[in-house]
Amino acid sequence: MNPSTLDERVYRTAEQLLRHNRAKLVPGAKIRPRWIEGGARFWFRTATPEGVRFLLVDPARGTRTPAFDHVRLAAALAAVSGQDVDPDALPFVAFEPVGDAVEFDALGQHWRCGLDDYTCAVHEAPPPRELLDVVAPDGRHAVFRQEYDLSARSLANRREWTLTDDGSADRDYGANPDYFMYSTLLGKLGISHLPPAVLWSPDSRRVLTHRTDMRGVRETHLIEALPADGGAPRLRTQRFAFPGDEHMPLAELVVLDVESAKAVPAQAEPVPMPLMSPISRRWAWWAEDASAVYYLSSTRDAKELSLHRLDPTSGEERTVLTESGSTRVEPAQMLGQTPIVKVLSDGTEVLWYSQRDNWGHLYLYGTRDGELRARVTSGAWAVQEILHVDEERRVVYFVASGLVEDDPYRRTVCRAGLDGSGFATVTDDELDHVVTVPPGARYFVDSASTHELPPVISVRDWDGAVLVEVSRADDSRLRAVGWTPPERFRATAADGHTEIHGVLYRPHDFDPAKRYPVLDHPYGFPSATRVTPAFDPGYYGFDAEALAALGFVVVGMDGRGSPGRDKAFHDASYGRVGDAAGLVDHVAALRELADSRPWMDLDRVGVFGMSSGGFAAVRAMLDFPEVFKAGVAECGVHDLRYAEQGVAEMYNGPFDPQAYAEASNVDRADRLTGKLLLVHGGLDDSFSPHLTMRLVERLIEADKDFELLVVPGSDHAFVGYQHYLDRRRWDFLVRHLMHAEPPAGYRLAPAPMDEEAIADLFG
After folding, report:
1. What is the CATH architecture assignment of 130-214+249-329?
2. What are phi and psi of 673, to 5 degrees?
3. Which of helix, strand or coil describes residue 22?
């Protein structure tokens, strides 16, 4: 019997749910505050039923109003420019308030428009900012790279001068490791490198940076098959340390006086940076009065974490505090989190995050004697972020998870006295709270939601009172395309007692009388959670929503070994990266879910993921072939022995041949029985295509059938190729789990380049 063909309308609906399209279906779900007047007020740009609007929020007055009259401004700009200007789509994305006027760039010129009489005129533009400049807080100077050195520029008269002159290819200033500094993605944007890793002092006089020692670091290679000029293939070489390598990138910290160009090297050991610069990682910061630099360092095995104080005048360094443990000692559980550490009281005290009692809590130490002064928080829950410290009242405000009974990942705003007294919740509800704090910390912007309730964004004071509602997301368009909220579930792990949590997306037009193929969507490294407690599905959730639109039941969950809860739960993965953050728990949960949901067809279970999720997808098929019958693995980290040193050693422990072999899909390739599609970017400089090719070689040796898609010009994130990859993933899973044919000739539209994301990349 010939297989049926899926209706094209199903693919069209799924396409609307891809991450670059979904935001259009939920207007008001996110705002990007642009602070003015030192954070006293802010404006943001948003889509409304009438068109795009710029709105001004004044928390002190409790008002949210148009930043200006869009119709009058459009008319004034049209009159003076001679061009059509649509008030519902003004030709600029940002503006600067200047007294009773606004300035902006539009139609190829810089304009000032008075808001009293709405007259617009071409105006002298502010000093230009180069894309790769790092500008001082006062806006007078910028620091930038020239070859392997740093220079400064006056933004008023464009005068330039040298800050360093002894940089070299192996010891260049302000550089990140190669895979992050000189990436494939930057090349696609026509950019040769990231801006330098420099951190301005609050008084705009000095910068903290480092000389990056890459001597002896292993060289690895990529092949650019089709260069932009169409010429012969080119070899791309980058320095990239593997687990167990002796040499890794090191940061030799130095403070530069920008006006005098005087350099003050730190009188300290270089800081290991197997991941990225301590500045880029936010592991270094200036004291508010610019009297000191503080930075964190970790031993190579991540079992010891230290806080250091650096005198920017003398270069003298002293260790303020050190904590060690039998597994990782981290300043936060998630790899990308800002460290939960804050120096207080003119440098005499520090709030220190520790998981010493199995939960992430705050402890107050003296910085001069290293003595513990108070345990600030305690309980079976975890601090996730310090928001603000009111030093006069001796109160810290923070975000914690684990205080909502139904969901241990939901975040709550709390406060506590620095002496450990007076704990209270500031957001007294069971919603998930994502918080943004402005300069000056007069208030906080709160986005409150759940997986089924769209965000309400408001400004609150530090007692939790709502000062003004900013935005209320509307999910009616999302529901109109067939979306329904995912079901939040809890299940029992394979150990028979640990509770794990996840989400289940039902197919569109769900009918409980039918049976549906099931997809698991794991994230395999212990560095991030797969499931978000917020309405926003997270980076990986968009793919799950789209596949549910095609007719799959899609499940995402966080098994033992993933972060976000207590330390023991996270440590289940230490030295056991091959478990892919609890794949055995995924299997147990799928069976438990199907017991009460007969519409889940466990004879048709597939798995898909990217990066560490790509590793997990293959691992699931190799370790549980009786469960997972088909899979798509994108840019997978299939052999940890040849992956990024920092991540590997942090999570799997110091290099040991046997332990790392256990974390390799390559060494168990002969177990494959299901249908597998392997995908990798040919210019993936984060997790090299050789990680997939090693697996391919072994699969061929074992005489296994599989499909391989290499995207020769792609980076790790498939920028510019994502639409092609999405379709190929959908087609493969539809054919092998639905036993249907995809709609003939259907093609997805390429995702537009996100201008705001590019702007975020460069600060």
Report:
1. 8 Propeller (2.140)
2. -130, -25
3. helix
Q: Which residues of the chain have pLDDT under 50?
A: 1, 759-763
Instruction: Please tell me the distance from the alpha carbon of residue 668 to that of residue 215, in angstroms, as a whole number.
Output: 35
CATH 3.40.50.1820 placement within the chain: 8-25+480-663+710-761
Query: 260 in helix, strand or coil?
Result: coil
pLDDT at 190: 80
Tokens at residue 463, please? 């007692």
Q: Vertex 506, ends 505 and 512: CA angle to 5°?
A: 150
DSSP, collapsed to helix, strand or coil, labels residue 626 as: coil
Q: 454-492 in b/e burial notation, b at 16+ Cβ within 10 A? A: bbbbbbbebebeebbebbebbbeebeebbbebbebbebe
Fold of 8-25+480-663+710-761: Rossmann fold (3.40.50)
Q: How many other C-beta atoms lie within 10 A of the C-beta of residue 571?
A: 19
161's tokens: 């001068």
CA 402 to chain centre: 22
| Closest CA relative to residue 214, chosen from 261, 255, 256, 167 | 167
Residue span(s) of the chain under CATH 2.140.10.30 come to 130-214+249-329
> Is residue 477 a contact partner of residue 26, using CB atoms and an 8 Å limit?
yes
pTM confidence score: 0.95
Question: What are the tens digits of pLDDT across the range 505-514?
Answer: 999 999 999 9
- Tell how strand 444-449 and strand 432-436 pair up: antiparallel
Is the dihedral angle over the CA atoms 251, 252, 257, 261 positive or is it negative? negative
C-alpha to C-alpha distance for 680 and 691, rounded to whole angstroms: 9
- What tokens appear for 574 in the block? 């230490």
Residues paired with residue 489 on neighbouring β-strands, in sequence order = 502
Q: How many residues does the chain have?
A: 763
In the prediction, which pLDDT does 758 show? 52
DSSP calls for 362-416: EEEEETTT--EEEE---SSSEEEEEEEEETTTTEEEEEEES-STT-TT-EEEEEE
In sequence order, the 6+-apart residues with CB closer than 8 A to the CB of 190 are none
Q: In the chain, what is the greatest distance between 2 CA atoms, to the nearest angstrom?
A: 81
